[in-house]
Write a structure and sequence with these properties.
The protein has 3 helices and 8 strands; from the N terminus they run H-E-H-H-E-E-E-E-E-E-E. By secondary structure, the protein is α+β, with helices and mostly antiparallel strands. The strands form 2 sheets. It has a 5-stranded antiparallel sheet with strand order 3-5-6-7-8, covered by helices on one side. A 3-stranded antiparallel sheet has the order 2-1-4. It is elongated. The N and C termini lie far apart (78 Å).
Amino acid sequence: MQKKAQSKDAPGFTLLELIVVISIISLTLTWALPQFRRRIEKSSIQAFTQALVSGFYSLRARQGTDGSGCDLKFSSNYNFNTSNTFGSAKDLFELNHLNAKERDERLKCCDSAQCWNKPGNLTWAKPYRFLNLEGLPSSKRVEIQVSSDRYELSPPGTSAIAEPLVILVRSQNWNQDPSRPLPTLCIEISSNGVIRKGKWNIHKKHCTDT
């Protein structure tokens, strides 16, 4: 039997068509990848900010239960009133990697009888903390500043300090697109214990509602 000759009109792609398809895919990826990365960065800022807000609510709730006051201390390197340096979550709000003395220098909570994060104290098994969960993916993608080196929260989470504590959270890649920098979010803890989050107005140095 004779083999059937292959049709000269068999479907296929010409070189020109392949070049056009590849060009379209390249252009699509060129547009889509930055948008995708931007969305991931924005999501990380929002996730970490919400985690920190939840952590402060938990801290205040425990203060009310235990009747304890907490002394919050931060390095002056990350005070936006005196420095332009941003720190990581590990530099300011994560505690698990610290020893007892270092932890005590960052967050110290005491009631009228004892300090609850004193080495050897039975309550050390359940220490006070800023974040309910540490080392989250979002915490590795943000950088942070605070408005003060020290802040006191007395039970149930109020403060004798008139000025609020302001925490700024932004993406480590916030200025990757200079024409559209990512927003800096803020958390404000007022002297009466109210916690709110918003967007930082860099010109007015004010935390505005989102």
